[in-house]
Each structure stands twice: as C-alpha cells, then as structure tokens.
ABC transporter ATP-binding protein (Candidatus Pullilachnospira stercoravium), 583 residues
Amino acid sequence: MLKTLGAQVKEFKLPSILTPMFMILEVIMEMVVPLLMASIIDDGVEKGNIRHICLVGLGMVLAALVGLFAGIMGGKYGARASAGFARNLRRAMYENIQTFSFSNIDKYSTAGLITRLTTDVTNLQNAYQMILRMFTRAPASLLCAMVMAFVINARLASIYLAAVILLGICLLLIMSRATKYFQQVFRKYDDLNASVQENVAGIRVVKAYVREDYEDKKFAKATNNVYRMFVGAEKILTLNAPLMQFTVYSCILGISWLGAKMIVADTLTTGELMSLLTYCMNILMSLMMLSMIFVMVTMSTASARRITEVLNEKSSLSNPEHPVMEVADGSIVFDHVDFSYKKNTKESVLQDVCLEIRSGECIGIIGGTGSAKSSLVSLISRLYDVTRGSVRVGGRDVREYDMETLRNQVAVVLQKNVLFSGTILENLRWGDKNATEDECIRACKLACADEFITRLPDGYHTYIEQGGTNVSGGQKQRLCIARALLKKPKILILDDSTSAVDTATDAKIRQAFAKEIPDTTKLIIAQRISSVQNADRIIVMEDGRVNGFGTHEELLASNAIYREVYESQTQGGGDFDEKGGDR
C-alpha cells in the first residue's frame, strides 16, 4: 500500500523532503529560546548585566525570526507537496478507471468511486500534510525538549518521561478502539453518495410519483448512519485531550513544587526552572499534535486502502504481446461460445453459441427479457471476454486485436444512450474528433436526426445539457446513432437503439443504412418485429441460446417463438415484451 501511494508523490519529492527539514529547523530554534531565556534571568537580570541581556535578547530575536521563516517555508512546501500528492492520486485513479473493462467496473459502485476520488483523497491529503509537518515537528520537539530537560535536571525530567510513557499507552488504547469506527464509516459514505446520485439522476421520476418524502427518509437514514459512526468514534477520542491535559498539568504542579524546594536548596536556579516549565509546555503541545496525527492517520488508513484498491485494480482485458492492428472486414463468427459475467460461476449467460455472419449482412436479433441479446453483442467489441470458445471478427479472434483498433471498427449504440454536456457537434465528434460539419450533417441525415436539429434555434450548435435532458428519448437515440456512424465502422451494433422512435422513422433509418453503408455489417437488437423482418437474417435468442437463425420467412415457417411474437404484434397483441430491455 505504501509503495503504491508513494509512487504518486512523483515531482513533489523535493517539497516533501524540504518540509520536514524546515520543521526540524523550527523546532531547534524553539528549543534554543528557553536556554537563552534562562541565561538572561540567571546571568543578566540577577547579576544586573545589561550588556548580557541585550546580546542574548538579540540572539533570542534572531532565533525567533529563523524559526518563523522555517515555519512559513515548512507550511508552504507542505501545502505544495500534499496538494500535489492529492492531484496525482485523483489523476492516477481516474486514468486507471478509464482502462477498466466492464467486468472491472461491475465490481465498484459509481458512488463508491466518487467517494474515493473526493472524500478519501482529501483525507489522505490532510494526513500527508500532517505527516510532513506535525509528524516531523512533534516527535522532534518532544525529543529535543526531553533531552534539554534532562540536561538541565535529570531528576525533574524523569517526571516528563513517566508522563510520556503513560500517555503513549493510553493513546494506543484510544486509537485501537476508534479505528474500527473509521474503517466502517467510509462504506456508509458510499451509501450516502449513492442515495444522492440516484435521487438527482431520477429526480423527474421522483416528482412524477410524488416520492419526495420517501427519498427524504432514505437520505436521512444514510446521513444518520454516518452520524452514528462519527459520534461513536468521537466519544472515544474525547478522552484524549482531557487525559493529556490532566497528566501534563499534574507534571507542571509536581515540577513547580519540587523545583521550588530545589531552588531553596540552591540545587536549581530560577532560570532553569523557567526553562523546565517552558519545555513542559513544548512536550504538552507535541503530545497534542501526535494525538491529532494518530486520529488523522487512523481515518486516512481506511481511505488509503480504498484508494490503493482502485490503483492496483488491473483490467481483466489486455492487449496481446503482438496485437493485430487492422480489421480485415466485418465478418463475425461465434464458435461454441459460453459466457458468464462472474468467473467460477456455474450459471452461464450464453451457452454454446455458434453463429456465422458474413461481412455487410444486416442481422436482426430478437428475444425476450433475459435472453442475453446484449450480452451476445458485447463480446464482439470485446467489452467482455468469452468464458469458453471464441469470437472472430474479420477472420481473427478478437483477443488477438489491439483493443483500440477493434473498437474503432465496431460502433456500438448501447441500450442506455448517453449524451455529454456540450453542443450537438461536440457530441457527434465523439465518433470522429476530426469530422467536419458536413460529415456530421450527413451522419445525422442517415440517422434521421437532421430533421429535428435544423428546427432548433442554434441548429448543430445547440447546447446539450448534462445527460441530454433537453432532448427527447427518440432524439437522443438518433444523435447516438449518428455519432456511431461517424466512426465509419466495419460493424455497427444497434442495441434496442430505435425503441423510442416511431415506426416510420425506424423504417427510414433502416433504409438509409441499406443504401448508404451496404458494406458495414449491421446488428440490430429490437423488440419490434417490424424493425428486423427486412434484415438479411434474424437471430432468435432464448435463455442464452440461439433458438433460431434465418430469414423472416424461414423463421415464420420453422420457429415457434418467432411465429408467436410475429402474430402477437401483427394481430393487435402488442409487443411481446412489455417489461423492457435486458442486460
């Protein structure tokens, strides 16, 4: 864990080294001041030596100024190192998340990743700054004060030593009890963020069903869980400060009493007693800082584990040693394919799938909810790897290709259409960042999107809100299809991507595909028979198996499932699947 996190310090190694150096210099100056003060009292004030008072006083001012400079520089470099460390952590996590396969993403909730990128990184940033500054300053100050106290008077200084040992034991007991709470609290943060994210994303549904009270109660429950965890931890931590203050002030009383008796016996000077009391306060402050460090480190340890988990997560998909950099054509072959979303599970989503699709064919895919239609096509662009068998594109196993090369030749319009904040043109250029405006317009015409874009006040420069909330479902689907077409792919997969458009527009889109991109292999997942009946061939899926594969006429004659769906949709029965899509 430390090695993983330490690698993110990178270009901030120098500030990370300078910070503790300046903190040690500050501590040295602070330790010098009480000695100079004792000299002023013993050799200046009591002997009436004004020259000595002025010279030593000047030395105290100089030591204070050096200490002030060291403290400022320590703060400056500490802030730079900790902020840079946090920036690198966020960047490294975000970049690693971008490499995740779908199976990696399935392991983490969106809210959990957001908590790691925000709250957890902030905890580590604060802990790192405290480690660089206070964790250097506090032990150094404690050690120096202890040494100086023993130099002045070992008998009195032994009181400090006993107090430090006692407080150290108490501190360890307190921290061990508090740790279990901090280890659990960040999982509660995930639940809290999940509640907020789900509510904001589905705010229209919440209002439509008047479920604001229910959502308020759910959020209140999540916040109360976080509250209880922190209160439990704080109840234990509150013992820390009064225990230390009681112990240290008891030390002060003991030193004052014994010191006064020693002054009377001429075995201790007034200046030395003043120095011992000053060192006592230094020890108190050092112990207070150490307790704060332990609290922060305890909290950040749980955060560090969660961040390290993301940083060390390796994509389940990787390029071969010598990847193929060109896809020959759009032919697709499924050779006895089995597939499961989770490894070592007995249940397969796809079972013994065997298909051969020629380049340029238009293939319809139909089946009920849970029949694994989406799972089937997700293997083509290697969003997942097969469990058994192989998927070949352009005559080569998809695992032999460079993944970027393969995915650039396989355009997928997923079930859940996503548009990003920005203009329509900016969204379209996700398909091809170098596409001209004319190319974007042509793709939109093929997807029947141009007809509504031209009616917008700003046309192709219309701003799309986050999530595409200012366009309808059908308009969003057509924009996503146009975006996919701009990739000029060899394979185009439409995963139930025309479900929100009317049948006439759906027919226009299919006609444009047949006319304008005849060499592109087209796979159309649909719930409506009318969307696939004119395809070259149609795949009928049932429970993860291919139940039928042929033309519309062949399936009507030989496949009971297809015939039943066709009759239900053409004789007034409605769609065969009223519950919606599958995974």
